[in-house]
Design goal:
1 helix
């Protein structure tokens, strides 16, 4: 899996006293983005589920992928919010 060095997107959820961020990286020559939970932030809220996800030293926890050529902040953040809800984080 090789990421396009020119395309990544910061995503965030900042409601109800929750401040979590993720970063999406576009796979080079594919219409797919991989979303990682940044492990350098306070992950207390998600700590109980992180062992279900692959950890990558450089990127953090790989939490989901998105099939898309282009990904907007609005769409990516909405998908991140849906992931948080599906995992009973928020």
């Amino acid at each position: 899996m090789k990421f396009d060095p020119n395309q990544h997107l910061h995503l965030g959820y900042y409601e109800n006293n929750v401040d979590l961020e993720a970063v999406a990286y576009k796979i080079q020559n594919e219409n797919k983005w991989v979303v990682f939970l940044d492990n350098e932030q306070d992950t207390t809220l998600v700590k109980k589920i992180l062992d279900k996800y692959d950890f990558h030293e450089k990127y953090g926890y790989k939490i989901f992928t998105v099939d898309a050529d282009d990904l907007s902040y609005e769409v990516g953040s909405k998908l991140f919010e849906e992931w948080l809800k599906a995992n009973n984080i928020i």
